[in-house]
Amino acid sequence: MPGRSTKPSASFGLDRLTTPIGIALLVTDAEGALRALDWEDYEHRMRELLRLHYGAVDLSDRPAPASMRTALSGYFERDLSQLSAIAWRIAGTPFQQKVWNALTHIPSGTTMSYGALAAKIDLPKAIRAVGHANGSNPISVVLPCHRLIGADGSLVKYGGGLARKRWLLRHEGVEV
What we know:
With 176 residues, the chain is α/β, with parallel strands linked by helices.
């Protein structure tokens, strides 16, 4: 019998934003901070990540803050600096949070290998753990997990699909 979560139920708003690579799902808290960003065709994955990070989650249709929608639209219209204007909050293990925060320090237009990120957070042998944490990132694009690539320069794994990863990197000026 599965164990029950002892976490209280979390309530978040759910909004949708049309982008050049599909409908983005924006999950925000009562203060308007972004808690998840994923793709409509990966909604099941997003809900599972939310469950893992927050326990029971109630999602209700609620518009994301206008400033967040404007910043994301600006990013997709080539103003790459707009991502830094988005307020976000994450739940996860201290290690996951360390990895996710480190992602925000990879400048747009650049990539980094999983091994390089592991070294950057002072855990050079934790390459697989960095990969696992990266795969559990609930805030796609804003916490730019798409900027992580294989040691040989190959595009490997992206929760929103490799076609989106390729598009995001090209959009940011990376030749892939």
